[in-house]
Structure formats: structure tokens, C-alpha cells
TrEMBL record:
Natural source organism: Terriglobus aquaticus
Mode of membrane association: Multi-pass membrane protein
Locations listed in the record: Cell membrane; Membrane
Ranges for domain ABC transmembrane type-2: 33-257
InterPro entries: ABC2_TM (IPR013525), ABC2_TM_bact-type (IPR047817), ABC_2_transport (IPR000412), Nod_factor_ABC_transporter (IPR051784)
Protein name: Transport permease protein
């Protein structure tokens, strides 16, 4: 017989979703090691490579605007992987996940809270980078391009949240942060999120299309008016397939781990 508590049939569940999301966001925002690093790294790198280096080169405005798109994705990926993979792996190890499962809270509220929290941190990074790019990098970002960039960043939460869930099923909790860094940083570099691929060795350009970060970066650049070898819908289809595969693998691993427990 299940020991999990249940809500009354007519109990409103929407407030539970709101509260779970609110407290998940506040918890991570107050965790300085997480919030400072997650927000600070993309902002610091953008100021160095997009603003400082850009202002000393003749293509400064182009560089500031180009890197605005790619560093928004770099920040978003970090939010998703660290806020979902690392926290979920730790909560699973501490037994916090079992406590949540035994509570009357709807299971989707737990995952949705993490998804919306990652999206909120991505939006914060986007706002800071856009302000820095316009004020200090003299980037010209029309309102319609900014709107498209916001849409891309928010929608981009899904594939990397799915990736974070998958990683949380396979990495050991005490090594989750290190493993995420070993995946996140090289993947961002090889996708041209730090430096445009035109300034990197040619073999990297042939590897980049195999990475989800490259596809998200190309969509962000498309939102800002840059062209791409692929059509936008092709990137969307690739990322949708990546999301589905990651979620299916997550469900399979979750059930296998539950059966072993």
C-alpha cells in the first residue's frame, strides 16, 4: 500500500505550483555560491570579450551584439544544468526527493518549479547582458529582435532542462558539479558561444552541429538578425528531437533506479 499522502479531490493545486516555484527560486537566489557564479560568469566573460575587447576593435558593435546572443545561451545552459542536474542529484542523495514524493504535492510541481526557476535565471542574465551590451558595447538591438531573443532564451530552457534531468540520473551526487563543468564548458566553447567559430580552427565548425548548444546559439543569432547555414525550423526540430530523447532516457533510468531501490 502506498504511504504517499494525497490531496483531497477538490483541493486547488495551482497555489502549490506557485509556492513550489517561488521557494525554489528564492532558495537558489539566496544560495550565493549558485546565484553569483551562475549569473556572474556569463556577465564577466561578456564584459571581457564582448565589451572590453570589442571597444578596442573596429568591429566592436558587431562583436558586442553577436556575443550578446551567444552569451545569453551560455548563461541559460549553466542555469539549467546547475539548477536542475546538481540540485536534483544532491536532493536524491539526501533523501529529499523521497520526502517530496511522500508529500501531497503534485509530482509535476517539483519539476515545473525547477524548469521555471532556470528560465527565470536565464531571463535575469539576458536582462543584464542586454543592458551591458547597449550601454557599454554600443550594440544596437531593435525591440523586435530583443523580443525574439527573449522567446528563444525562454524556449531554450526545455532542451537543457531535459539534459539536466538526464545527467542527474547518471552522475554521482558528490561529483555532479565537476561533471557538469566538464560537459558544459567544452560544449560551450566548441559551439562558438565564447568566440565566433570563424576565429577557431576549422575542425571545430564540423563538430559544432552535433551539439545542442550550437543549435541554441544559432537560434539566438537568428533572433538578432544574423544568418545561418541552417534554417531556424531545422534547429528547432533538432532540439525537439534532442529533448524527447533526453526525456525518454531519463524516464528509463528513473524507473530502473527505482526498481533497484
Amino acid at each position: 500500500m502506498s504511504t504517499a499522502a494525497t490531496l483531497p479531490a477538490r483541493a486547488p493545486q495551482f497555489p502549490l505550483y506557485v509556492k513550489e516555484t517561488k521557494y525554489e527560486f528564492l532558495r537558489l537566489l539566496r544560495a550565493r555560491a549558485f546565484s553569483v557564479a551562475t549569473i556572474g560568469f556569463p556577465v564577466m566573460f561578456y564584459l571581457l570579450f564582448g565589451v572590453v575587447v570589442g571597444n578596442s576593435s573596429p568591429d566592436g558593435q558587431w562583436r558586442a551584439k553577436y556575443l550578446l546572443g551567444t552569451y545569453c545561451i551560455f548563461g541559460l545552459v549553466g542555469c539549467c544544468l546547475f539548477s536542475i542536474c546538481v540540485t536534483l542529484a544532491n536532493e536524491r542523495a539526501l533523501g529529499w526527493l523521497e520526502l517530496k514524493q511522500a508529500s501531497p504535492m503534485p509530482a509535476p510541481a517539483y519539476l515545473l518549479a525547477k524548469l521555471l526557476t532556470a528560465a527565470a535565471f536565464g531571463a535575469i542574465i539576458l536582462a543584464i547582458l542586454t543592458t551591458c551590451g547597449i550601454q557599454f558595447g554600443h550594440a544596437v538591438v531593435p525591440a523586435n529582435q530583443l523580443r525574439h531573443l527573449v522567446e528563444v532564451v525562454l524556449a531554450g530552457t526545455l532542451p537543457f532542462a531535459a539534459m539536466g534531468l538526464l545527467l542527474s540520473m547518471v552522475v554521482p551526487p558528490n561529483a555532479a558539479a565537476g561533471v557538469v563543468n566538464l560537459i558544459y564548458l567544452p560544449m560551450s566553447f566548441l559551439s562558438g558561444l565564447w568566440i565566433p567559430l570563424g576565429g577557431l580552427p576549422k575542425w571545430i565548425s564540423s563538430v559544432a552541429p552535433a551539439l545542442p548548444t550550437w543549435h541554441m546559439g544559432q537560434l539566438a543569432l537568428w533572433a538578432l538578425g544574423y544568418g545561418s547555414k541552417w534554417q531556424p525550423w531545422q534547429h528547432v526540430v533538432w532540439l525537439a528531437a534532442f529533448t524527447v530523447v533526453a526525456l525518454l532516457l531519463t524516464v528509463f533510468l528513473f524507473r530502473r533506479n527505482a526498481a533497484k531501490a
